[in-house]
Design goal:
- The protein has 265 residues and is of the alpha/beta class.
- It folds into two domains: 158 residues, 3-Layer(aba) Sandwich (Rossmann fold), CATH 3.40.50.720; 96 residues, Orthogonal Bundle (ProC C-terminal domain-like fold).
- Helix content is 52%, strand content 14%.
- It is built from twelve helices and eight strands.
- The protein has an eight-stranded mixed sheet with strand order 3-2-1-4-5-6-7-8, with helices on both faces.
- The longest helix has 21 residues.
- The chain is elongated and about 65 Å long.
- Bound molecules: NADP nicotinamide-adenine-dinucleotide phosphate.
- The site of NADP nicotinamide-adenine-dinucleotide phosphate (NAP) has 28 residues, from helix 1 and helix 4.
Length: 265
């Protein structure tokens, strides 16, 4: 089994470690470095090796996952130089590009990953990017590791990760927002909060599962449940007339542009 090291043992690292432990890795295969003693104690309870020394955690690792906040990446990366040529580094930090990572790590064997929050419950969408020179074996190791908390997809252009950030990265918030407003609407129309929440959440879950397993597009599925002159059509007419499509497009564009700006700062 490969030896895996984590720099940073917070939310996303804990989720990935949990996924690895459920998928054949043992505590002996995993080392995590985190400066926070309370955090290290929690991680120790998962059975993985813990240390406050980044270089100690990464010394014998085949893959190193950088799971610190974007503003902490430079310090974490420079603390593990020099790396061995075969070691694979995967960074999940939002907005930190591979050019910066290559410079700070003095290392080219690396992958940039953009996860989203459902990864915390093993249902993430994880976008991956690497330069063309990354080996097939390294790509498949990255896919294997990140698949432990969700579905993975590789992108060929690094700038696509700004769009990924706008769609799957920020996407959970859009769906939460829709749930929130539908719960509010249900209560305005007279339902109690518990009933409104139950109806909305199960409808969201069932709809997502149906869209995922169906051979039809969401557009087709929507048409299938919209009878002429019916209730769904009455609601969808309001959404269309009020410009839902343009609002969503503007929102995604704003997120993409913000991601580009943050990547430059
Ligand atoms: N959570 C998500 O769903 C999600 C989604 C997409 C992307 N990400 C990315 O994942 C990264 C981590 O997010 P998170 O939510 O897991 O953050 P987090 O819970 O704050 O975890 C980061 C951990 O790293 C530790 N740390 C700080 N500096 C370090 C260093 N130099 N070496 C080793 N460890 C260090 C922090 O300790 P201190 O608290 O003491 O600083 C903290 O325990 C971020 O870059 C974020 O962009 C997360």
């Amino acid at each position: 089994m490969n030896k895996i090291a984590f720099l940073g043992g917070g939310n996303i690292a804990t989720a990935i470690m949990g996924g690895l432990l459920e998928n054949g890795y043992t505590g002996k295969d995993i080392w995590v470095a985190d400066p926070d003693e309370i955090q290290r104690q929690k991680l120790n309870e998962m059975g993985v090796g813990v240390t406050s020394d980044n270089a100690e955690a990464t010394a014998g690792a085949d893959a190193i996952l950088i799971c610190v906040k974007p503003g902490q990446v430079k310090m974490a990366a420079t603390s593990i130089v020099p790396l061995k040529p075969g070691q694979l580094v995967i960074s999940v930090a939002a907005g930190i590009n591979t050019t910066s990572l290559r410079t700070w790590l003095a290392h080219a064997n690396l992958v940039r990953c953009m996860p989203n929050t459902p990864a915390l419950i093993g249902e993430g969408m994880l976008a991956l990017f690497a330069e063309n020179d990354l080996s097939k074996a390294a790509r498949s190791l990255a896919t294997e590791l990140m698949s432990s908390v969700g579905e993975t997809r590789w992108f060929e252009q690094e700038h696509d990760l700004d769009t990924v950030t706008a769609i799957s990265g920020s996407g959970p918030a859009y769906f939460f927002y829709l749930m929130e407003t539908l719960i509010d609407a249900a209560m305005t129309l007279g339902l109690d909060e518990q009933s409104a929440r139950h109806l909305v959440l199960q409808t969201a879950l069932g709809t997502a599962q149906m869209a995922k397993i169906s051979p039809h597009s969401p557009a087709q599925l929507r048409q299938n449940v919209t009878s002429p002159g019916g209730t769904t059509q009455a609601a969808c007419k309001v959404l269309t007339d009020q410009g839902l499509q343009s609002i969503i497009e503007k929102a995604a564009t704003a997120a993409q542009q913000r991601s580009v700006e943050l990547g430059k700062s």
